[in-house]
């Protein structure tokens, strides 16, 4: 039986490279993983005043994460960090205290950028902020996808062979990581 992976896309942009990377990963993942893309459109801002009666969109997001066996974050880098929309999703999903939806779920991080550094700062930001309310974070292989601006055709299909190879290797490693932690 395949493990369900919630692929949380950290960008709202219609032509988001992160969304395209997430779709490419879903196509390249081994049969042991079923990747389900989770976009953050419509997820309202976290406000602790609302925790007693959380908004329906928070409940839905938390349930999506809780139903998954693992979580894979696919994020761009904004100003040497993760986008605010992704931080908000982590805040929503990690609450209330002690009941984080991410607990016990193996975590993967895929950062990307059309620039030369491939989102390395965003990935490091996630690695700093997730421990304590997430499951085990896969440390190796790390994946920082640079130069993604020309990796997809006008229909969003992956056309860069080198990137396809890297994504397939990462998906295989993540499948082994999830299997190790979800036996």
Automatic annotation (TrEMBL):
<dbReference type="InterPro" id="IPR050712">
    <property type="entry name" value="NAD(P)H-dep_reductase"/>
</dbReference>
<feature type="domain" description="NADPH-dependent FMN reductase-like">
    <location>
        <begin position="5"/>
        <end position="145"/>
    </location>
</feature>
<dbReference type="InterPro" id="IPR005025">
    <property type="entry name" value="FMN_Rdtase-like_dom"/>
</dbReference>
<dbReference type="Pfam" id="PF03358">
    <property type="entry name" value="FMN_red"/>
</dbReference>
<dbReference type="GO" id="GO:0005829">
    <property type="term" value="C:cytosol"/>
</dbReference>
<dbReference type="GO" id="GO:0010181">
    <property type="term" value="F:FMN binding"/>
</dbReference>
<protein>
    <submittedName>
        <fullName>Chromate reductase</fullName>
    </submittedName>
</protein>
<dbReference type="GO" id="GO:0016491">
    <property type="term" value="F:oxidoreductase activity"/>
</dbReference>
<dbReference type="InterPro" id="IPR029039">
    <property type="entry name" value="Flavoprotein-like_sf"/>
</dbReference>
């Amino acid at each position: 039986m395949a493990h369900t992976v919630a692929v949380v896309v950290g960008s709202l942009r219609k032509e988001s490279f992160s969304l395209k990377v997430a779709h490419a990963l879903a196509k390249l993942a081994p049969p042991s993983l079923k990747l389900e893309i989770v976009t953050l459109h419509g997820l309202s801002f976290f406000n602790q005043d609302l925790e007693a009666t959380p908004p329906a969109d928070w409940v839905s997001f938390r349930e999506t994460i809780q139903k998954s066996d693992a979580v894979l974050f696919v994020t761009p880098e904004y100003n040497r960090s993760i986008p605010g929309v992704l931080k908000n999703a982590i805040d929503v999903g990690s609450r209330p205290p002690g009941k984080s939806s991410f607990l016990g779920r193996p975590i993967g991080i895929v950062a990307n950028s059309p620039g030369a550094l491939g989102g390395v700062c965003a990935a490091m930001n996630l690695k700093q902020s997730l421990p304590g309310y997430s499951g085990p974070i896969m440390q190796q292989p790390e994946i920082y996808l640079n130069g993604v601006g020309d990796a997809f055709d006008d229909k969003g299909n992956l056309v860069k062979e080198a990137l396809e190879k890297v994504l397939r290797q990462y998906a295989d490693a993540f499948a082994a990581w999830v299997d190790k932690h979800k036996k």
